[in-house]
Amino acid sequence: MGKTLAEKIWADHVVSSKEGEPDLLYIDLHLIHEVTSPQAFDGLRLAGRPVRRPDLTIATEDHNVPTLNIDKPIADPVSKLQVDTLRKNCAEFGVRIHSLGDVEQGIVHVVGPQLGVTQPGMTIVCGDSHTSTHGAFGALAFGIGTSEVEHVLATQTLPLVRPKTMAINVTGKLRPGVTSKDIILAIIAKIGTGGGQGYVLEYRGEAIRALSMESRMTVCNMSIEAGARAGLIAPDETTFEYLKEKPHAPKGTNWDAAVAYWKTLQSDADAKFDKEITLNADELEPFVTWGTNPGQGLPLNAKVPNPADIADAEERGAAERALTYMGLTAGTALKDISVDTIFLGSCTNGRIEDLRSAADILKGKKISSKVRMLVVPGSARVRLQAEAEGLDKVFLDSGAEWRTAGCSMCLGMNPDQLAVGERAASTSNRNFEGRQGKGGRTHLVSPLVAAATALRGTLSSPADL
Amino acid sequence: MEKYLTHTGTVLPLRRSNVDTDQIIPAVYLKRVTKSGFEDGLFGAWRNDPEFVLNKPEYAGATVLVAGVDFGTGSSREHAVWALQNYGFKTVISSRFADIFRGNSQKAGLLTVVLPQEDVEDIWATVEADPKTQVTVDLENRNVRYGAKSVEFAIDDYTRWRLMEGLDDIGLTMKKIDEVSAFEAKRAEYKPKTLPVLS
Ligand code: SF4
Fold first, then answer.
1. Is pLDDT above 80 for A425?
2. CB-based contact, B73 to chain A, within 8 Å
3. Which of A161, A458, B84, B136 is at a distance of 20 to 30 A from B64, taking alpha carbons?
């Protein structure tokens, strides 16, 4: 019987395997940031262990960093300590780091692909659950905890139990105004936040093949929101084309050897997935979440659901709590919901194409006087590219703020936060209670919906303009 | 890591599903560079509410957390596990855990036990009727006992052995480090390296 893509990559990385034990898997790339690494480096120090492969390790500063005045020292002393600790650890253990102010600094999942260190067929880990982003290249990429970070630093391997595989077939063609963010929000609404648990998801089908690399990253990024540790897409010409000129892409004969291998990275025709689901892209509309988990989403044309209509008691209770927290009334049209904050950024939608698509809508227009809009590029490089294209001017002229790279308002860890009761349309990935600041309310949307909402002040799609 | 054989204590009944790691330990508490002191941030956003179950005096000192389905979803922060441990919890019971949270807890020695939802409900009901109910989580015999009841749970042999011996994974892998070196010797030339710096 044939193998799925995930099974092939897994098999290529097994260092040792024994009945009744997890497989020991080799890790090709380890990405590091300031939040989940200090205790891991400390563990190495205590045990007197070096980093086994500094040449397969790279660090950046993202979660804690301010997105204004980055030439000044970080104001929050605790954030500063964490960033300083990362710098010290990297210096001591010989790990490459891209610090604030460096042209390669940015959100860890934006930096890997843009440097070209993310490639098909690799195993990639990071102490961050959105490591699944890198699966867009046909890599097996997943988030790990701090104990595992220490394990990878020390041994470049991880003991892991082989996950099951799920095929997600997205057939048909997206309509204008509908994006890969809507695909993934619709998938999560369909299978639920626990639906992918224990599986690696493989996104397939015509609608996925048609996506750019950056749009594919948006889909894979949110695999974790469906409960899956990893999600991937088989590499193809789009992937090779994207990688070709990247700094760390293979060169010369190495490129040919790599592409020959990458072309084998497809699920075999007779491979069997443990589960398969199908979604039709023809029918998709722009999606938005109304609740406090990413599975609580609906097409923008729908109304806030009535918990009384939900049969499952657990889900009904969760919906009731969500509406209370979100300050919403059942039956309200989603498009009548006013927001006061727009966040365009994050590792889900902070890449150049995301900024371009939002700028296209904002060009020559003013955002509503009732909203503030933060535009935060995913990396310093994305920021430079956007400025070279004049996008910064479009955003500033429309009344939005143009910031420097970082996780920013995706999570309430740096100065960019929602205040109690504030409501955001956000292109990030989590709408948990307090995720964007204590008491803040989050509606997850695509960059197009974010831009349209900024203009009208209420949740809107570009078609409403 | 502390060995886990069997543990007896009282229960905190957390009747909520989908408790994500942002709820277990909000991001603002993640700025520390140690593994201790996270107890003050545990369920940070809910702690102000006097009605929140963790604030109820009858459940003070509980060491077994029994939660709704899909506990630990969201971010990979192991701080969520440390916060629970720092607060004094030894075991979490739920009908389903998020994968990364479960992995993290098993690395750090916090036992996560999966029981069918109806058993979770029964424990909740029992404990709410009598908060002093002692619950024993017996890893050796793979069961949870309270009152006259005993419910079996499944856990793979390898994880059980590791937890019972209190073994840390790195030490175990170090014994296979020659195999790692042999694997590395065969890795393809074209695989990327982060050093030297090219950009
Ligand atoms: S942008 Fe958000 S989801 Fe992505 S790494 Fe940063 S905090 Fe995590």
1. yes
2. yes
3. A161
Interface test with A, best of B43, B86, B191 (most A CBs within 10 A): B191
pTM, two decimals, is 0.93
Q: Is residue B116 classed exposed, middle or buried when 0-12, 13-18 and 19+ CB atoms within 10 A define those classes?
A: exposed
Average pLDDT over residues A163-180: 97
Cβ pair B173:A20 closer than 8 A: no
Structure confidence by residue, pLDDT tens digits, B19-53? 999 999 998 888 888 888 899 999 999 999 999 99
Nearest-CB residue to A129 (from B32, B100, B184):
B100
Residues 79-98 of B with CB under 8 A from A: 79, 81, 96, 98
Taking an 8 Å cut-off on Cβ atoms, the answer to whether B23 and A79 are in contact is: no
CB distance from A438 to chain B under 8 Å? yes
Phi, psi of A348 (to 5 degrees): -80, -45
A428 ligand 1 Cβ < 6 A: yes
DSSP A311: -
Which of B69, B74, B197 comes nearest A129 by C-beta? B74
How far is Cα B199 from Cα B192, in angstroms, rounded to an integer?
13
Q: Which residue has the tokens 């193998």?
A: A3
Mean pLDDT confidence for A126-134? 97
Q: Which of B64, B21, B67 is nearest to B44 (CA)?
A: B21
Render pLDDT for B102-141 as a digit per residue (tens, 0 to 9): 999 998 899 999 999 999 999 999 999 999 999 999 999 9
Tell me how far apart the alpha carbons of residues A426 and A344 are, in angstroms, rounded to a whole number. Answer: 6
Which long-range contacts (C-beta less than 8 Å, at least 24 apart) are formed by A13-17?
A13/A123, A13/A140, A15/A157, A15/B176, A15/B179, A15/B180, A15/B183, A16/B176, A16/B179
SS3 A1: coil
Average pLDDT, chain B: 95
